[in-house]
Design a protein that fits this description.
450 residues; alpha/beta; OB fold (Dihydrolipoamide Acetyltransferase, E2P); five-stranded mixed beta barrel; globular; disordered C terminus
């Protein structure tokens, strides 16, 4: 007897790691309905675009993608089939009905706190009646409704512990698209982490818009990490993204005391000018940020720092930008993300005077990237000659190659057997590029030529 073919689900994820987690959980929600994931939207029964609203170009890419998918939907309809199109994530939250008005091929819109309602929304869409837009902020309801079991296939996994933001940086839409800060209960997180470890996950990355603002059950992120560090099989813990004002003493201490907490910290600063930081409503100064880094490094001297930077914020003059370069030189970053300021409708910064010319933004971004790239290459080169514990995740692009991650989140390539995937193995680093390292297995030299 032949098996009943699964309904085909295609999900495209834009933006941050939290969207990656949300896409995985949407898959879990839809799996009981018979949906199996496919890699191509052509011919899919359900297409979900899980969107990001941080930058304007990302939003326009969504509408461009919807135009292409509409053509696929029309082709399927001509062949007697049906395709349902859903827009999820932060663009869905921010633009809601406007998405349906602008692209009438869209069947339903679901915000990031309401994707647990997808089965009900799909049923409504198929009946062509009832509400097809869900964009509330009830994060607790979402997590209560999600299946306890997660379908994981790798040795690393994301784990959302906190959502939303109360900081209201003047350039950012997150408080309007994800709502206020909300933390999951400690026990729920610990149980999900236990299940992940039982499924073979060796490393989790804790996610939150301001993850170090975590306060579930009156806990702190440091206390949560200490609980997770006791789970058998869970060997590595990371977290992102943090805010400098929420970097408490107990979390700094945890970096110095817990071997499971990886020596890599993403701590966005955004700018080096106090004038610009104040205009951004960041609630920290360049000096307080540098002193915070000094405290973190005192607790964990080998920690690698990562950051976010915005150039061309309204009112930024040459002298302000030079202060950003000075801060970068003083701190030294192992990696970083940098962007030109992009106006987001409804944010205070979008209406500020002193909007910076695009050509000036581009020139400043190029200069900043050159400095950051140099620092990343220097940091990677400093690993040559060292032996690093590498968690191998998958086969590489070349025959006989496997790829893993160092404690500092660098990709590490070696020649070796696929039987090492899922294990943590010492690797002697022999060479470094901007984005990766290469080496040989320290304890199994026979595998180097296998």
């Amino acid at each position: 007897m032949s098996e009943t073919p699964q309904k085909r689900l295609y999900i495209k994820t834009y933006g941050c790691q939290m969207n990656v987690y949300d896409s995985e959980r949407m898959t879990d929600v839809l799996r009981p309905l018979g949906y199996g994931v496919v890699d191509d939207p052509e011919g899919a029964d359900l297409v979900v675009l899980n969107t990001c609203h941080i930058r304007e170009k990302a939003t326009e890419k969504v509408y461009s993608e919807l135009g292409l998918i509409k053509q696929m939907k029309d082709r399927k309809a001509q062949a007697g089939g049906k395709m349902t199109i859903a827009v999820a994530g932060c663009v869905a939250q921010a633009e809601g009905q406007e998405i349906m008005n602008r692209q009438r091929a869209v069947d339903l819109v679901v915000g990031p706190q309401a994707y647990h309602q997808l089965p009900e929304l799909i049923a409504r869409a198929h009946r062509a009646s009832g509400e097809r837009l869900a964009a509330d902020f009830a994060a607790d309801e979402k997590f209560d409704a999600l299946p306890a079991e997660r379908h994981v296939t790798g040795v690393t996994a994301f784990l959302t512990v906190q959502e939303g933001c109360d900081k209201f940086c003047t350039f950012c839409v997150v408080p309007y698209t994800r709502g206020g800060e909300w933390s999951r209960p400690v026990n729920d997180i610990v149980e999900e982490a236990r299940r992940l470890a039982g499924a073979g996950v060796r490393e989790v990355t804790l996610l939150g818009q301001n993850v170090n603002a975590y306060d579930g059950d009156g806990s702190t992120l440091a206390k949560l990490v200490r609980k997770l560090a006791t789970i058998d099989g869970l060997d590595r813990i990371r977290y992102t993204t943090s805010h400098p004002r929420d970097m408490g003493d107990d979390l700094i201490e945890a970096h110095g005391e817990l071997p499971q907490l990886m020596p890599y910290l993403h701590l966005p600063v955004q700018a080096g000018s106090d004038k610009i930081l104040k205009a951004m409503n960041r609630d920290h100064t360049a000096e307080s940020y540098v002193k915070l880094i000094e405290r973190i490094r005192a607790a964990r001297p080998d920690i690698a720092m990562s950051g976010d930077f915005i150039v061309g914020f309204p009112g930024e003059r040459d002298g302000d930008f030079e202060k950003t370069l000075e801060l970068v030189r003083e701190v030294g970053f192992a990696s970083a993300f940098s962007f030109k300021y992009s106006r987001r409708p409804g944010t205070p910064a979008s209406a500020m005077p002193g909007q910076v010319d695009e050509a000036v933004k581009a020139e400043r971004l190029d200069r900043l990237n050159q400095l950051l790239d140099d620092q990343q290459r220097t940091f990677n080169a400093s690993q040559v000659g060292k032996t690093l514990p590498v968690l191998f995740e998958k086969a590489g692009r070349h025959p006989g190659q496997i790829v893993g991650r160092s404690p500092y989140l660098q990709a590490v390539h070696v020649s070796g057997g696929e039987h090492l995937i899922g294990t943590i193995v010492p690797v002697c680093i022999e060479s470094a590029a901007k984005m990766s390292l290469a080496g040989v297995l320290a304890n199994e030299p026979a595998l180097e030529t296998a």
